[in-house]
Design brief:
Elements (H helix, E strand, L loop, with lengths): L2 E11 L4 E11 L12 H28 L5 H8 L3 H12 L5 H20 L3 E4 L10 E4 L1 H17 L8 H4 L1 H25 L13 H7 L6 E2 L3 E2 H29 L4 H19 L1 H4 L3 H4 L5 H14 L2 H8 L6 H30 L5 E2 L2 E2 L1 E8 L5 E7 L3 H4 L3 H15 L10 H25 L1 H9 L10
Antiparallel strand pairs: 1-2, 1-9, 3-4, 5-6, 7-8, 9-10
Helix pairs in contact: 1-13, 2-3, 4-7, 5-9, 7-13, 9-10, 9-13, 9-14, 10-15, 10-17, 15-17, 17-18, 18-19
The protein binds NADPH dihydro-nicotinamide-adenine-dinucleotide phosphate.
NADPH dihydro-nicotinamide-adenine-dinucleotide phosphate binds next to α12, α15, β10, α17 and α18.
């Protein structure tokens, strides 16, 4: 392992003066920068559990909502209380499992192809991700916002004006779409596994763990692509996944209208919160290129199946719930949820903006009215080259190392609260996000420690809290 002598420079810059504190530290170039290479037996077992349990959980939520008004415990209790559990399970599955529908399959694959065409051919700005562990700085086509508007305009015009479909089309084909999305999610996972071995896009950025299960789950290739620009990660997370998110919600709102004759204020608020989050994502798509999804995660089942199935089915669970259990919020409840949601959004956006602005100005900017405080770092890529970067340690980033997650958790909580307190299932999203983000803090710590070495330790001394100041 290379051990190199580096300098940590804590710099506070103003227009008129620069205060610089310098001290020498050893910076060890971490071999763990990027995804883990050496995985333990325990990790492999957990990976197997995720591979098996994730599809079962999606199916379970589908069955709970479709057959049991989204009462999460109901299917399990039916089996538990039956005299013969196995017979009860078989009966339940025969009755509730989604069935293959050629129409839904055509819908799904037309949607996927349409999104691919938009991604490939719409005019786009070119954005750049973070430098990869092998030293690549990859260009990305950023045109998601336009794709979102075109997709939604066609969906609305086709449903409201031309009568090509009912606006509830997605809701009406939910089971058939689930099967089609699963088929694609699995196909993509195995295709990427084989591609990584036979025709990788950037061979030096691959990571082989030695475990088939772990590689299948977490991916081998970092940035699988077709040609120069068709990036699997950006496309699958953004297009079939996140563009679909708001459209699914709208379709469920239409289904609620058909069912009860109006759209509840809870459904409207939920649509508003989700749409804000989604539009923010596309408006700031260039920023997304430098988040952990793109800068750290390899492309395996976790993202391939996750973007195709987990995201569209579980992130929209609340709107599914509200069709089955309409909730009329009182003005006070509406106001509280609105305030929590948009306070969360404000924090989420402001924190992420501070990181982006400080990186794009090389630290020469004001944060909360004061010159940005940064730790200037360097890191080495596997091609042996040294690169410079910086870590912001003032503003929100001086409060905790992941204050953006606090904003995200507040928005997520508000989204769940639109469903009232009768059932637990719609709260799945906040539970999942809490686990995901806490785990992410740990993953990010390992990555950044490997990448920045002693600079990261210096940063941890300056900003000791991970999430909530003085708490964690
Ligand atoms: P961040 O945007 O915080 O990115 C972390 C990376 O930023 C680090 O790996 C490091 O990368 C860099 N970094 C860390 N500390 C600093 C610092 N002090 N100054 C400058 N750069 C720093 O995290 P995520 O990518 O996880 O999340 C992005 C957003 O997306 C968050 O708001 C999160 O809540 C949200 N999110 C939403 C999810 C959802 O499913 N709804 C899932 C996950 C995230 P480097 O130095 O290599 O650039």
């Amino acid at each position: 392992m290379a051990v190199q002598q580096r300098k940590t420079v804590v710099t506070e810059t103003t227009k008129t003066e620069t205060t610089t504190t310098t001290k020498n530290v050893d910076h060890q170039v971490g071999k763990t920068w990027g995804r883990d290479r050496d995985v333990s037996f325990g990790t492999i077992l957990i990976s197997l559990g995720i591979l098996v349990m994730s599809p079962i959980w999606v199916l379970y939520t589908y069955i709970s909502c479709n057959g049991y008004q989204c009462a999460m415990s109901a299917p399990a209790l039916e089996i538990y209380n039956a005299p013969d559990a196995l017979v009860a399970l078989k009966t339940l599955l025969a009755r509730e499992l989604p069935t293959f529908s050629p129409y839904a399959a055509r819908l799904f694959f037309t949607w996927l192809t349409f999104q691919a065409v938009l991604y490939a051919f719409l005019p786009a700005q070119i954005g750049y991700g973070q430098r990869t562990p092998a030293g690549h700085l990859l260009p990305y086509k950023v045109n998601g916002l336009l794709a979102w508007f075109i997709s939604h305009a066609i969906y609305a015009a086709g449903g409201l004006y031309f009568g090509w479909w009912k606006l509830s089309i997605i809701h009406d084909n939910w089971g058939g779409l689930l099967i089609a999305a699963n088929a694609y999610g699995y196909f993509l996972t195995f295709f990427c596994y084989i591609k990584a071995h036979l025709f990788p896009s950037h061979a030096a950025d691959r990571k082989f763990s030695g475990s088939f299960i772990y590689d299948l789950l977490m991916g081998i290739e970092f940035n699988p692509r077709f040609g120069k620009y068709f990036d699997f990660k950006l496309f699958h997370n953004g297009r079939p996944g996140i563009v679909a998110w708001t459209m699914i919600n709208l379709s469920f709102a239409a289904a609620q209208y058909q069912k009860i004759g109006y759209v509840t204020n809870s459904m409207i608020l939920l649509n508003l919160l989700h749409a804000t989050y989604v539009l923010d994502f596309f408006y700031n798509e260039d920023w997304y290129l430098r988040t952990i999804d793109i800068a750290h995660d390899h492309f395996g089942f976790y993202l391939a199946w996750g973007d195709s199935v987990w995201l569209p089915w579980l992130y929209t669970l609340q709107s599914h719930y509200l069709v089955r259990n309409p909730v009329d919020l009182t003005p006070v409840q509406f106001g509280i949820i609105f305030t929590i949601g948009f306070t969360g959004y404000f924090i989420f956006r402001s924190v992420n903006h501070q990181k982006d602005i400080v990186r794009s100005t090389n630290g020469e900017c004001m944060i909360w009215g004061k010159p940005a405080k940064v730790i200037r770092t360097s890191f080495v890529t596997s091609d042996g080259k040294t690169h410079k970067s910086l870590l912001l340690c003032s503003g929100y980033w001086g409060l905790s190392r992941h204050f953006n997650y606090v904003g995200d958790l507040l928005i997520s909580l508000a989204m769940c609260m639109t469903c009232g307190t009768k059932h637990l299932l719609p709260y799945f999203y906040i539970i999942y996000m809490t686990i995901l983000l806490l785990h992410r803090i740990q993953r990010d710590h390992t990555r950044c420690k490997g990448k920045y070495g002693k600079y990261w330790e210096e940063y941890m001394k300056v900003v000791p809290y991970k999430l909530i100041p003085y708490v964690y």
